[in-house]
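Appendix B, example 12.
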Amino acid sequence: METLKVYFVPFFAQGHLIPLVHLARLVASRGEHVTIITTPANAQLFDKTIEEDRACGYHIRVHLVKFPSTQVGLPGGVENLFAASDNLTAGKIHMAAHLIQPEIEGFMKQSPPDVLIPDIMFTWSEASAKSLGIPRLIFNPISIFDVCMIEAIKSHPEAFTCSDSGPYHIPGLPHSLTLPIKPSPGFARLTESLVQAEKGSHGVIVNSFAELDAGYTEYYENLTGRKVWHIGPTSLMVHNKKSTTQAALALDHEQHECLTWLSSKEPNSVVYICFGSLCRLSDEQLFQIASGLDASGHQFLWVVHRKNKDDDVADNKWLPEGFEEKMRKENRGMMIKGWAPQPLILNHLATGGFLTHCGWNAVVEAISAGVPMITMPGFSDQYYNEKLITEVHGFGVEVGAAEWSISPYDGKKKVVSGERIEKAVKSLMGEEGAEIRSKAKEVQDKAWKAVQQGGSSYNSLTVLIDHLRTLVTKPAN
């Protein structure tokens, strides 16, 4: 049987790039020839891993295209949204993602793949694949549930015109779901272009597992006529063993002081707080979070990012007076002002809850660790992820948001109160949170079973590769 030649094009953001690189590695692990097309700075984020895969005999390589820094007005090396701290820089990175189209097309003309799998953000891939006669599948780094929410809201605009305040009931879905606030018009325009570009594909691959999307897979396939492949959580599939995380935890125990601090705590006693690599919270919102954590009386580990990367997080002017001194005296809280080993924190026995912005990678990491969530979405699709966690599956407590934003950099006019955060923390970490914690463990078990041999995601990868073979044009005799 001839091997497939598959090209992957990851988008320039951590939450998109990491799972698509995982997917490329998984396809290569099945013996196929894989090429990841990206820019130099983005390649540096995973090149060591690819070298290790090649050393294991995988046919996987990286093809570099130039990042159009001069054209978009960015300094050299700024090629990923992680490096952005404002809408202007982010907009330039998005623009660059479209300007690389001619170079990628030229490479595919010179060396055509059997199949192209780009990230959903590359809306130009529809025209490129069509003009070159290359079969295309879309990679969507979120769940198919989110896409169903987008389609349902688009089909029922009347749901948001009946009132100026929520909650808003979303009709037509497998579950009775509500949104507390209206989606922003800008987000509707953005998602419409993405969904439109998906229409010319042979299907969509998602970083999720079938059991998590429940009845929404069938809903989507009936609605669109396109196939869904659940290949996830990809982070679990590339490791495939629980012992990997525990071994890493033991190995890295001395590498970050927060792990030592966690080891001094009782099991399931600490709330972990992190809003991802992109979200920048205002001083007022940080103040409310601190106030809520203090009032909750529970222990916490908090990764803090300011509104702007240039802000001095050490000035502490945004904290309630005496907050840090009180937390140190009581040994109740620890703040990390920088990078933190999130997977190791979530898998630590002391971690009993996760206050999160609901970014999909963070959600998947929490599910994989069996940690229930306190949901406080920051922007974009995260408002939908909250509903999957709290209303569909019930392994989280909802804080919600005060307004809808399509950008992590926009300062919000309204903030979530400390009282709402306090109430949610007490709800999850107290006795009434027992059922939610139990559901989180049930979903964790389903995730781990999905990635094992014979599991739904493992089998879906096999079916996907078999399907890719049917798309390859056979030469005439």
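The longest helix spans residues 434-451. The chain has two domains: 5-238+452-471, 243-446.
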